[in-house]
Amino acid sequence: MDDNPEPDDTPDTGNDPEMDAESSSSPQPGVPDTDSQVPEDVQKYEKFTKMDGAQYDRVNEFLRDRTYITAREWAIARLCADFRTETGVEMTKIGENLPELVPFMTDTYSPQAVNQARASFEEKVRTAGATFLYGAMCDFFTAEELDDVMYEVTEVAKFLLEVEGVDLDVEDELDAEDRISAVMREVRSSSEQLRHDAAECPHCGGDLDAHE
């Protein structure tokens, strides 16, 4: 048994779909069955086609081993980016056509459940970003170790993009890695200066000397 079980991956709404290996293939109660009419842009959607036949629990396990996000949050965050209009995200369309859009999703979702998954993704990205940036700034990693961390996380991110169907050119990959490394070296340098320069106390406004 997992000593530190992950929080429940289902949306916190009254008619939430269960997202595990035993998930029912029937539509979520309260969401129309759209088998009879699939929108044209849904029919033409080609992201995630490399994952035809994949099971939700296997995808979720892969993500849990390497990221903070779940398969549900990954899929819906991508769909929210792709089905964004000038007036907002087409959450109803995403929810009603989720099984047609993403092979490993078997249930339809309500707009509220789609919105919650999107919000959960955003919150996790912000939390993970703060954790990573603090780790890079606090002098815990050497410059070489930080490069190794950046390489590992970049490889995972690139793999997810490739699974979504993004065609990454080798030269573009190398250029992106070089630019990311340069940014992180600048972050480390700036944070070192910040740690050792006089700083202002956020409580009283007095100067703090990092050397003391």
Describe this structure in words.
Helix 7 (about 145-165) runs antiparallel to helix 8 (about 170-195). It is built from eight helices and four strands; from the N terminus they run H-H-H-E-E-H-H-H-H-H-E-E. A hairpin with a 6-residue loop joins strand 3 (about 200) and strand 4 (about 205-210). About 55% of the residues lie in helices and about 5% in strands.
Give the helix/strand layout.
Elements: H1 40-43, H2 56-66, H3 71-82, E1 84-85, E2 88-89, H4 91-96, H5 98-101, H6 111-137, H7 143-164, H8 170-196, E3 199-200, E4 207-208
Helix pairs in contact: 3-6, 7-8
Descriptors for this entry?
single chain, 212 residues, mainly alpha, two-stranded antiparallel ribbon, 8 helices
Task: Give a summary of the structure in a few sentences.
The chain is mainly α. The protein has eight helices and four strands; from the N terminus they run αααββαααααββ. A hairpin with a 2-residue loop joins strand 1 (84-85) and strand 2 (88-89).
Q: What fraction of residues sit in β-strands? A: under 5%
Please write the string of helix (H) and strand (E) elements.
HHHEEHHHHHEE
- How many β strands by DSSP? 4
What's the arrangement of strands in the largest beta sheet?
A: 1-2
Tell me the Rg in angstroms: 21 Å
Low-confidence stretches: 1-8, 10-30
| Structural class designation | mainly alpha
What sort of overall outline do the alpha carbons produce when their principal axes are compared? elongated
- Helicity level: 40-55%
- Sheet with most strands: 2 strands, antiparallel
Helix count equals 8
**What's the mean pLDDT score?**
79
Terminal-residue CA separation: 47 Å
